[in-house]
Amino acid sequence: MLTRRDILHAAAALPVSASAAIRSDASNQTGTGRAIVALPDRTAFSHKGVHLNAAYTHVLPDVAADAGWRHLETRRRDGWREFPVDNDRDAAAAAFAALIGADPREIAIVPSTNEGENLIAAALDLGPGAGVVTDSFHYSASLAMYGERHKLGMPLTVIAPSGGTIDYGALEAAIVPGTRLVAVTLVSSLTGHTHDLRRVCEIAHARGALVFADIIQAAGAMPIDVRSSGVDFCCAGTYKWLMGDFGAAFLYVRADRLAQLRRVQLGWRGVKKYQMHALPSQPPGPAGGDWSLATDTAGMFEVSTPAWGSLTIAVAAMNYISSIGVDRIAQHRAPLLSRLQDVLPGLGYTPLTPRNAAGPFVAFEKPGLRERLQAKLTAAQIAVTLQPDKIRIAPSVHNGRDDIEQLIEVLSQAA
Fold this sequence. Notes:
Organism: Sphingomonas rustica
Protein name: Aminotransferase class V-fold PLP-dependent enzyme
Helix content: 25-40%
CATH architecture of the largest domain: 3-Layer(aba) Sandwich
GO molecular function: transaminase activity
Keywords: Aminotransferase, Pyridoxal phosphate, Signal, Transferase
CATH class of the largest domain: Alpha Beta
Pfam families: Aminotran_5
């Protein structure tokens, strides 16, 4: 399993030129002659203040916002453009597939991560005789969705955490004959707990179950390889670490799993060919027409017109991410998170995130945090996820050590 220690070691092992580029030198070149983006990269963003809240919503890079404006300008001025055939859907699917090691044909565009998981649950016919094993760190709406299916007779086991993590022995024991799906969140938005996805898949597959992973808190922030992990299905929306906007998500379905899924809804994207028989110029035939269906991932799961603008923004954002490299993004962030984990416990903050979790944020608990800190953070223009007794801190490519020290100074006032 990739841990934060592995990321830090990888950063330490970088050539001098590469490690310098991560710090400050934008003039360094890659082996291909392309400039290495310096981290922190503040020049690519226009937001005000210190944004340490990418796990909630990432701010748009300028290049992505500009792509969005161009899309809007096209919608405003170009009434001739045929968006159903002239759009960024395929480019977005290809860019996401490259980030996770998939084939673009294994990607469908859906409205959200949670909707992707609902589609997989329906396509697997989860219900009596086809159960689910999951854990308490999975997304809350997903737990509710499976819980509602449980009320209708679907077997369900939810594994409680032990010592801040999930016991894989308990996971293995919970998968019984009739378990069809193991559903996990790769990086828990609750605590930052990071699953060993390959291990989860090994356990599930050995016992005849498939695996769905919610990867919205991982895609774009840390290395993911769907091939090496063996995951069957995963999904991520674009508005967090993919640095995009709302209304679009990418659903990955391993190609050799499509045959195990049933079609649960159908729209124009899933109709491969349609022949009408309603007009005088058309050939005779059934009043309802004749058609054939597409059977690839998009044909199975894409129903209606997607958010073209969000996909245009996503392409630009993912190209920006790729220009840096997900490995370098993780390497840049790791010491920032380690600094927080070194300092905050001494200020009375109880860590919720396992020390070596490879996820992109850390979370801490302390009674009365929101009441003590909200005004101070607002005055300092620092954005984090702040709850009544919990704080989640999620730095990204535009953050440096100075941002972390500024936050620590404010947090020390609630000690």
